[in-house]
Amino acid sequence: MLHDISHSQVTDNVQVQNAITREVVKHFIGNPGAGDLVSAGALAENNYSITYWIDIVCPTQRHGLYVKVPKGDLRGLVPSILPIREVDQVMFKAEADSLRLLNEKWVTSDLHVYWITLCFALPEYNAIVTKRVFGAEAFSIFRYLDIRRRFGFQNDFRKLDSSMARLGAALGRFHQNSIVRKSEFLLRQELSKYEYYCDEIAKHTRGNLPKIVMKKLRSLEDVAIPCEIAPTLKGLDIRNVLMDENEDLYLLDPGKTKYTYREADLARFLMTYRILYWGSWLMLVFRQPSSMAEETFLRSYYFNSREYPKLLFKLVLLKEQLKHWHNAIDSLQRRPWPSLLKRLVKSVYVDLYFKRQILAQLRTLEQ
Description:
Order of helices and strands: HEEEEHEEEEHHEHHEEEEHHHHH
Strand content: 15-25%
Largest sheet: 6 strands, antiparallel
Structural class: alpha+beta
Helix content: 40-55%
């Protein structure tokens, strides 16, 4: 029996959801019999996808599934599965291709760190079907563990440290198994990316920090660092990690795969770790989580590597910090808040945090 789910401002979404569900059920069990039960959750929307779960219960089998429909930026739009835009198709193909690569190359069961498993894709609906994972957000768990660490609870710190070690080791193993070639990071060729973020930040921020950043980078523009090119994941983010009751870790939403220097993934993931307190008043007190767990992540990542290109990581992390600052300003400007409130939040919360981060990062370039 198929239950219709009444949700969404867009009536057609319900009909499309039911059509997707019928295709999923057909894929797994054919036509449902009298003893089969199919249920589907309400549609959930965020800025870049529409999702829901499906549960198929039969006398001899059960399937817990998750359906994701990637969408281009939905901010300011009424979320709708159809029509499928070109940008939606690009995101769908990129994520499905990434999951196929990960299902093949991510071999880390001994570390208990997994990516969600791709079941199949439905191009006609732009839908990706994966196995459903049950767990709590690692983001919230890590924040809780870090707070308790500050009050002397060493078992909680060890749990945080162990989790970060496993994540670092798993990512390192994936990259080691997937390196396509050796290359060279030429800062001169990357400067335009830094300059774009600095220019955008300078338009909305008082002070000369963007100019200081560019001055420092131009003093290093002849830097050339050996590196290794591997598949990196644009969606790698600590906010996309779940932890189950056995402390197994599951990564979600890999996004697009980009072949570039592998330190891009390290900077991407660790920047999201550093904003563990983002969006909470606790950030005014704690600022960022344990640097020891971050160092553990890096040591575990590079455990099987001959070298740790520290300067490359520092430069890539600086770019990621600038990108996050730019994105935070953009997101804040889109909020339907009074102008005075947005200026206040930007000044005492957003700008203050990123200025501290970037000034500290510039000092590491002197070491």
